[in-house]
Amino acid sequence: MKFAISFVLLACWAPVQAQPFKIGVISDFEHSTNLEAIVYEMIQETSRTTGASRQISLEATFFGITDTESAQRSYGQLDGKADLVIALGSITAKGLSLMRDLSTPVVALGIIDPNLQEIPYVNGASGKQNFTYIWQTRDLDKELEAFNKIHDFKKVVVFADEKAASTVNKQKVRILIDSLSKKWNTELSIVPVGSDIRQVINQIPASIDAAYFTVLLSQTESQVQLLIDQLNDRKVPTFSGNARLLDYGVLGSMANENDLQQVIRKLAIMIDGIASGSELSSMSVRLDTKENLYINITTARKIGLPIPFEVLFTATLIGNDEEALKTYSFEEIAEKSLTANLNIQISYQDVELSKIRIKSVKANLFPSLESGLTASQINEERANAAFNTPERSLTADLTFSQLIYSEQAVATFKISQYLQKAQEYNTEAEVLRVMLETYTAYLNVLSAKTNVLIQRENLLNTQKNKDLASIRVDLGSSNNTDLYRWESELAFANQSLIDAQTTLLASKLQLNTLLANTLESEFDVEDISLEDDLFKAFSQGPLAEVVKTPQRLKVVSDFLVAESQRYNPNKKELAESIHAVDR
Length: 583
What we know:
The chain is an alpha/beta fold and 583 residues long. Among the domains are: 19-135, Rossmann fold (3-Layer(aba) Sandwich); 138-257 and 289-324, Rossmann fold (3-Layer(aba) Sandwich); 330-346 and 410-526, Outer membrane efflux proteins (OEP). Helices cover 54% and strands 16% of the residues. It is built from 22 helices and 18 strands. It has helices spanning 2-13, 33-50, 68-78, 90-97, 114-117, 140-150, 162-165, 170-183, 197-203, 221-233, 259-275, 297-303, 309-314, 321-324, 330-340, 342-363, 407-475, 480-514, 533-539, 542-546, 550-566, 569-582; strands at residues 19-27, 54-62, 84-88, 106-109, 131-133, 135-136, 155-161, 187-193, 210-213, 238-240, 252-255, 286-287, 292-296, 316-318, 326-328, 368-377, 392-401, 523-525. Strand 3 (84-88), helix 4 and strand 4 form a beta-alpha-beta unit. Helix 3 (68-78) crosses helix 4 (90-97). 26% of the residues are buried.
């Protein structure tokens, strides 16, 4: 009996032989390093998903499919050799969907819209035997709405992949474009994008004020970069439903940053189901991802487009914005406050005026020497020596005077001296006051920056919690009450982020005002840390040797308070003013 049980356990523990599962790939796109990496990631993700029970391998690949007939011929070559075929691109997907009998299962990627491409779609699935696909649902109307919040366009050119455009129903596309043009009161025109980018650039109307990119997969990175650079040089705002184009310089995107990873993940799950015997015709083809608005702030600056506050406060900003902004340290801000603050400059001028006033008063105490010269000439007929009226006369006089003593003059001089001293102390106090306000304003900017980061993180966490609540509702593990609560929290988080951004702008404005608006209209300040020289000067200087215990800290604090009261410039100014009044 024991021997029989041991035999059964050994049989259960024996390793299961992995079943081979071969995958073939048919692609519209030419072979490239990036495409090869994507195919490799698909195979690896599928292998991880199916586990050790299956040995996933790549049987064969066909690249550069240009028409539906070529796609069907390539499929025929894989028939009987591969266990599953992955169709990459609109042409291949369209070509295989038209085949009546598919003996080898097919999963297609690169679907634009099943309705426009007339690809089978029944109740969220393909409804076609041995055929399914992944459709990344895109709402062009919603994306144009997001684009319109950034830029009020009137004439938009839509760039569409030439191969993908060849697979859609032209009449249906025209109806869609016309309806969107009417809704947004704009003129939409489609420009197919092939391999000749120079030709595409020449086809762009000179009167456009915006450009929208559909998913471009047939073009190389350099070709896409050239097209976007040309539009940016022409100061044309651009938008795309593909987040990867943000790296090339597109202004905005309404997408998910992990689009490709989600597609690959869904593909692996579908292949695992197919290998287990699931029916392709009933598999869900939709891939609904949470879309976020992204703004390339570097591009916005390059084309000179001001982004509305509503978008700045709620969108995810990318780009080297921090590198583009001039960043100031506290030392630089303090130096600017001393040289540019208007109140300090006025105080310095008041000191100079008081010095001039003393010189004027002091001049009354010095000896005075006055000279005069008078010359006259009359007509010869009127000249009469008897009456001492010569024809010509010249009179000179010289007067010397010296004030011996005058209480009023001495008092005026002394009062002027007291007032000059009072003005000097007032200037010193003004410098200290401005420095305190500048330091406070600098810290307010740092505090506001930190608050923006906190509120932005809170917004992201709230969004994640809301998404989780939505998933729980879909699964039936929770009701709508929890979802509504998180939707309310999300609204509050959005408002808190807007308030934090507003506070940051106000703090920067206050700091710039103290510096007489000598800073750039948009600037940043350096963060302060305990590793900075300013803190090291206190932590490693003589003061740190003195203050080592709470008792010593109190002694030093009392001393500093007494010294500040003793040398308080406001106190000295008041004393000098009292002296002037008493005198």
